[in-house]
Structure formats: C-alpha cells, structure tokens
Amino acid sequence: MATFERYFRALVEGERKGKPDRLLLAFLTLLSVPYGFVLSLRAWAYRRGILPSHVLGRPVISVGNLTVGGTGKTPAVAMLAKYFISRGKRVAVLSRGYGGTLRETAVVSDGERLFHSPAEAGDEPYLLASTVHGLMVVVGVNRWQGGRLALERLAPDLFILDDGFQHLRLKRDLDILLLDSSRPFGNGRTLPGGLLREPRSAAERADIVIYTRCHDDDELRHFPGKPSCRAFHHLAGVTLLTGGELHSFESLKGLKGVAFAGIADPLSFFRDLEEEGLTLAAALPFPDHCRFGGSDIRLLMDTFRESGADYLITTEKDGVKLVQHGNLPGKVYTAVLEMWVADPGPLQSALENLLENRG
User: Which of 63, 121, 244, 354 has the fewest Cβ atoms nearer than 10 Å?
Assistant: First the structure.
C-alpha cells in the first residue's frame, strides 16, 4: 500500500515519465473531468439548498483542505482548540475518525477521560484528545449527528469541524482552508488525475486561507481580497514514547536513529529530522494511518538491529498507536510538531468576531 501511494503521488506530480506512466496519467486525467463536475454540482446543490445543510445551534469552525494528503490540519485544530480553551470555552472537535474501527458515532474524550483507543477512534482524533487538555472529541461519519451527541452529553460552547471543508452537510460559521505553500493545488487536476479533492474554484467558499509550511520569503496570495495568513510548522523537540519532558534534538547528537512514519508524506518528516541534525541509519515509510501490526513491528525490529541504531523515532500521530507494543527495541521517541502563524491578524480578527457575535 505504501508503495502504491508513493507511486500515485509521483505519477500525478510528474516524477514518473515512462511511456506506461504517461498513458496511465492521461487516462486518469480523463476521469478527472467527470469527477470534478460531480463535485462542483454537489457544492452547487448545497449552496442552493437542494441538498440540506444542518445547524447545530453553536458556533462551528471548519478546518480543511483541497488536496489529499497532509497540510497540517491536526496541528491547526490543536492550535485553535488551545486558543478557545484559553478563553474559557468548552470546545468539542467533530472528526470522521478516519482509520478507526468505530462504526457508530462515539465520544472519544469528555475533556478529562479517554474512552477509546487509537485503533478504535483513529490516530488523529486520539492524538488531539490525549494532547490538548480539556478538549472534547467526538467521532462519526455524520458530523451533524456527532454534534447532536456532543450537545446532549458534553454541553460544548463551540465546535471545530476537523477535515470539514468538503463536509457540506453541516453549516459552519467560519470556514478555514489550509493550503500547502509548496504546491497548494498539486498539478491543478482533481482526483484521480491529480491530488485535488475538488476543483480549485471551491476555495472561494473559504472565509480565510492559511498557507502552511511556509518559508520566510514566501509571498502567497492566490486569492486577492480574501483574508489569508502564513503558517510555519516546526519540530519542537522529542519526547519518549512512554511520556515525559520535551527534549531538544541536541540530546540525540552523536547517536544513530531509525525513523519511521505512517503519514501522508513520510519523506518530508525524514527530511525535517535530518535538518534538525539527526543522523538516520534508516528511514521506513509506512502507509498513511498504518495500524502497525505484527509484520510492521517485526520490520522495525529487524531494521533497528541490522542498522546498529541507538533509537527509534516517529511522529506523534504514529506514536499513540505504539504505546501498546511493549517489545519495541531500544528507546523510542516521538517528534513533537507545532504550528505558529507568522501574520495572525486576519485569523485573530476572524476568531474574535466569531466570539463576539456567536460566542
């Protein structure tokens, strides 16, 4: 699966140039036309009220993106949740629970206790619930039903709709769109001939655009007149898988590690670790939302032993699924990812207006 995901991304981003690759991409590009039309028609039907959108009676902030793969939604949701919690608000995240085994709508956390494992809830909802103190998390395919369950059991003041840009069944008061600054629209085509979930024109629905993974000299204004911000993701340090204090990357200087990740773009994680000065004896990419079964653990153990490494290191999202494995070799670290907004004025104004008018 990981090999297929890497091949597909390389294909649509133009890195595969063989004749069979070009023929396959041409075929997939043809399929993108009806796919994009159906998605545009769906959005139009919601806009005109032909398809119903539901209201929860509390402010709803949606955080989402246009492309498949990671744009930093989880750090963005965590950042917003911490902001509202610091203002004394009871915050509930509504998540689909992608990758989890739960089939019914369920409360993952009431802000104090965790009721489901990462395998049941999905790694991202569990990570949010376990790392943001006071955050309530509900998972379910139908986020409106999830919101109603939260209103009955948790009494939140507001909702954050995780990965919600395409979830038009639920009305939102603030629509935040995340775009990766390096390639915000991929190759410009929708699935399956590109990485766009919807045509680029769908971005006009957003109230504010946040360009993620920016560099200091980036000037990104793809939508003139629409409020926008630049955001930076950085690895703040490492913690042991079993918990404890945050340590700097300097603490691993002179040691060799085996890095592994089951995220949308594991190669970027490996590059970030090397930019922090870590020496990697091996780097293992796994499929996005990998559950790390027995064969995966054996591969990790064999690679660790054969490489002569001193430690294992992975993402926080993957780390929450590995706590149950007590037989991992050596020390296992998770790299803590944080997000900060360089020019927060537009976002701050939007959040303050929301609290003033709906809070």
Answer: 244
**121 phi and psi, to 5 degrees?**
-85, -20
Q: How far apart are the first and last CA of the chain?
A: 44
pLDDT tens, 80-138?
999 999 999 999 999 999 888 998 999 999 999 999 998 899 989 999 999 999 999 99
On whether both 334 and 348 belong to a single domain, the answer is no
Rounded CA separation 65/76 (Å): 11
Phi, psi (rounded to 5 degrees) for 147: -65, -40
Cβ proximity of 38 and 192 under 8 Å: no
Q: Are residues 102 and 133 in the same domain?
A: yes
Residue whose pair of structure tokens reads 């991409």 in the numeric block: 25
Residue 190 tokens read as 């929708």
Q: State whether the Cα torsion 261-264-269-270 is positive or negative.
A: positive
Its domain, for residue 254, covers: 234-338
Q: What is d(CA 42, CA 40) in angstroms, rounded to the nearest whole number?
A: 5
Q: Give the β-pairing of 228-240 and 208-212.
A: parallel
Whether 59 contacts 354, CB under 8 Å:
yes
Domain shared by 224 and 323, yes or no: no
**Above 80 in pLDDT, residue 325?**
no
